[in-house]
Design brief:
The structure is a single chain. By secondary structure, this protein is an alpha/beta fold. It has a single domain (2-160), classed as Rossmann fold. 43% of the residues lie in helices and 16% in strands. It contains five helices and five strands. The chain has helices at 19-22, 27-40, 53-62, 82-91, 129-160; strands at residues 2-7, 44-49, 69-73, 95-99, 121-124. The chain has a five-stranded parallel sheet, sandwiched between helices. α3 (53-62) packs parallel to α4. The radius of gyration is 17 Å and the shape is globular. The two termini are 30 Å apart.
Length: 161
């Protein structure tokens, strides 16, 4: 099983940008923690960050046939990008939207997500721990999908016998 973690614009600046909102942790440190958790749970994980909307769309499309689930922090594109929303809908993989800050406690324009309706769920406001919670949720979703597939295969086998 493989999880793709996609990070949007300015998240490469974590640790430097608006520390009062996003805290002192760098993106690489967050990824290190996620890598450890993935290893403990026997899942593959890959990370991608871009400041460009089209590159994020390309990466989501590449997930088809390559990843089983997507954890995405679309950052500012959360609030503007129909292209990212459509790409997630197109690949039809389970996706979880993540935010470090509580976007509902901030400016009005951050309260609207174009991406959330095509995701399994959204996790926001727990600082870098939001990513850990997203990993836990994604493992649960992937295990449920696997259990469902196993059951279907078993039923097909019984019908053929
Ligand atoms: C963010 C919230 C967005 O509104 C903002 O544009 C970001 C980061 C977060 O993780 O809290 O860049 O996605």
């Amino acid at each position: 099983m493989k999880i793709m973690v996609i990070q949007g614009p300015n998240l490469n600046m974590l640790g430097l940008r608006e520390q009062n909102i996003y805290g002192p942790m760098k993106l690489e440190q967050i990824h290190e923690q996620m890598r450890g958790f993935a290893q403990q749970n026997g899942v593959e994980i890959e990370f991608f960050q871009s400041n460009l909307e089209g590159e994020l769309v390309d990466k989501i499309q590449e997930c088809l046939g390559d990843a089983d689930g997507i954890i995405i922090n679309p950052a500012a594109y959360t609030h503007t990008s129909i292209a990212i929303r459509d790409a997630i809908a197109a690949v039809s993989l389970p996706a979880i939207e993540v935010h470090i800050s509580n976007v509902y406690a901030r400016e009005e324009f951050r309260k609207k997500s174009l991406v959330a309706p095509v995701c399994a769920g959204q996790i926001a406001g727990f600082g870098p721990f939001s990513y850990h919670l997203a990993m836990v949720a994604m493992l649960q979703i992937l295990n449920e999908i696997k259990a469902m597939k196993d059951m279907q295969q078993q039923q097909q086998g019984q019908q053929q016998a």
